Amino acid sequence: MNFAQLIGDWHALAVLFVAGVVPNQIWRMLGLWFGGGIDEGSELLVWVRAVATAILAGVIAQIVVEPPGALASVPDALRYGAVAAGLVVFLLTRRSIFAGVVAGEVFMLAGRWWLG
Amino acid sequence: MQARFLSPAQTPVALPPLDSPQWQSPWRAFAWGLRSITQTILTIVLFVTYLGIGALAHDTHFSLVWALASTLFVWAGPAQIILITTLGSGATIVQSAIAVTVSAIRLFPMVVSVLPLMRTPTTKRRELIFAAHLTAVTLWVECHRFLPQVPRERRIAFVHGLGCGLVSVCLTSNTVGYFLAANLTQPLGAAILLLTPLSFLFSTARNSREVADVVALVLGILLYPLAAKMNSGLDILVSGIAAGTIAYGVHWWREVRA
Fold first, then answer.
1. Which residue, A91, B189, B238, B243, could crosslink B219 as a Cys pair with Cβ 3.0–4.6 Å?
2. Confidence label for B109 from pLDDT (cuts 50, 70 and 90)
3. Sequence spans of domains, chain B
4. What interface predicted TM-score (ipTM) does this complex get?
């Protein structure tokens, strides 16, 4: 990998700044500026948090339903099965993130090995 | 009901007593903050998550510098995933920016609630800028756990140390994930990419404190495939706002009934 490949194109870095850095730092700096005056439990923030959680949930679904790169080589049923298996173990282990992730990964790798 | 879904680590933290001379130097406090990353399981969760982000960036054709810059300057895992996934699947800059902006709103209440823990009567606002930048879900959780055991006038230095430690871990795992995705066989490459949805699903589920959060998570997943069928280019926003608003409705209905 050479230097140019490492950096990639400048356009992508500009997009990162506009669509990634600015939208995040705006909220942090508003929090810094207007601290104090906002009630953490206000109804507006409950709605905002619910929408933010649902957007993240949508992205999780997108990665599993329309997988990028190497993940696309895994059959649909195996991807869904891996998430389901991880979820079951996560709930059984009293919400251990680690156990859930390991279980999902093992399920997928075992499935791939079994399918050949 | 509030506390049932929250399982914060209530284990004692190995820090010097509040009146110890160890706390006299801000640099020492920084070092204690740095060292505290070894005191939390969330460091491993972050490592795994950012391993996945590095791999995802590689497989959606972003450069390594791009991935590292996103970790350094965005410093919010969900926003980075949303950015990479939406841009990678052909969304416009404006569509991605809207999705990221909405996802980042949750940083606002975090900053609002965490900064008072570090403030002293003489603290100037600019002294808190870097701490505000470092604020994301992991730091927010850990501040509530660690800071009661740190003298107030050393808390900013401690948080800087803790934050820098966590950022370094993530930059390292980004790099490792990126190169693993580039060099691994297909099944293992797929396994690295699967880390992202798994770790985000379970850490969000773990952080879901109220029924509204759980409903938003479950409905957000179920509604996405439906929204994607409409092919509007705004799938994530459509399913997110719909699922989030229904979840809020459930919350409101329970409040009214209570």
1. B243
2. confident
3. 24-192, 208-258
4. 0.85
